[in-house]
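Whether sequence alone determines local backbone shape is best considered at the level of individual chains. The sequence in question and its structure tokens are set out directly beneath this paragraph.

===
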Amino acid sequence: MQISFTLNGRATTVDVDPATLVSDLLREQLNLTGTHVGCDTSQCGACVVHLDGVPVKSCTLLAPALDGATLLTIEGLGATAGSNALHPMQEAFREHHGLQCGFCTPGMVMTATALAAANPTPTEAEVRHGLEGNICRCTGYQNIVIAVMAGAAAMHATSAGE
């Protein structure tokens, strides 16, 4: 079947088998490999993308759900369209060492940006709760929590024009 959707700000039309997972479509057909697949069971969060502004796990979402929707992946998350500048949340993860091996990082960042958009000043407890669907096997989470709080502050400052 043919589906049309907006992918990272660009109109996209693709032919897909109706049983194709969004994660497979992104990685195998569209060559957007930033969305990782760690578990195939919606447990780890490495595959989180934003569907119509809501974070979803792409490893259990079928591609036909994208028809007419807007999808944002880690590749589309940037400070400004067309620049190589990092999004404030990505910069916070870099600056505060919120990653180690980097496998979970795209999903963490996508979850964190949605969390920060909904709550510009999250507490440590709110960040930990908001990241419950994302698993990291390397960092111990403390630097991730610090990064998310810093990223939320930077996103809020950017949106406030500071």
